[in-house]
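User: For documentation purposes, I need each entry recorded in a consistent format: the amino acid sequence on its own, followed directly by the corresponding structure tokens. There are two entries in this batch. Please keep commentary to a minimum and don't merge the entries.

Assistant: Recorded as requested. Entry 1:
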Amino acid sequence: MRTIILLILLVTGSYLNAQEVQSKNVPSIIINALQLKFPKATDVVWELENGLYKAEFEIGRQEFEVWLDHSGKLKRWKQDFDKEKLPGAVQSAIKKSFDGFAPSSVERLQEGRNVFYKMRLTKAKEKHKVLFTEHGKLLSNQVL
């Protein structure tokens, strides 16, 4: 349940306690942990958000956001994701519940072992912002 609440906060952008942090003020254990996990990260911007260090960066043309605790442990992360690579279960769920809708702005979210997919679904003038588990279960549906 805690994971779902955190992900809903991610989806809605309700993290209001973010404070930008200059790289020189980020503990080396945090920077080293990020570099070990994402050695090709470029243009890293740091924030302190609800007690976690948040790094926003790019690898190639793909955007990432990761949250690390004070020991450098990766707590959760999200990345831009290619809609063509959505798991079959998510594609089936879209077809079943949102037939005729096209996904866009897809993001892959991960917290621990839990993987989620956040996206916009559009059909004509109708739009939804949705969150699915990797197994195709719809967790959130916001009509836009």
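Entry 2:
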Amino acid sequence: MKIPREGAAKTRQSLLTTAEEIFAEKGFRNATIAEICERAGTNIAAVNYHFGSKQALYIEAWRHAFSESIKAHPPSGGVREDAPPEERLRGHITATLCRMADENNREFWFMQREMANPTGLLEEVLREEIRPLQMRTAGLVRELLGPLVSDREAKFCEISIMSQCMNPLVARWGRGKKNAEPDDPPKIDDIYAYADHVVRFSLAGMRALREAMEEEHMGLKGGKKSATLETGAGNS
């Protein structure tokens, strides 16, 4: 008997949403298809029909969680693409931090589970989905640094910015214990204030690096000119 298209779509969506919750909570290995199906109100045959395997469901659940997260927090942060690079970086960083701190963002918890107990199942989909975000960060960094800063230094700046955004402390905003203990690590109470700090800190560092490279370049050019003049004077 053929399943009505509307009913099939609803079942698939229910499986994805439920799988997101359970995989984010327990990780791939500790989650079971039986538990997912029970909570979703369907049966194991539905998983096989829509996804083919637990592995495929895991991948699609992460992809769906990522997609929903990006919809909620677009990478531009609402900043126009023709805005100055400083403003575009601000929008990008703010959107990234809000995404990481969002209590509804299961994508983050998937990654936490993966780091603690890797499966290798998300490697390809991560390259596919995360790559555009990495390229966006890299492009903004290069635009702000200018052409004189080396690719190596530009990569270090990119890693520095994203490390500030991906710090586990960011995720504690809105997720941490209500009553913190004295020995608990610090908690970020205002994600927008922290975003502003990351932007100012990163821009200041890149500005200093750019200025240093420009001064070095001008010094080298000046040295070459002097050497040329001295050589010319000696031959006259």
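Summary note for entry 2:
The mean pLDDT is 86.
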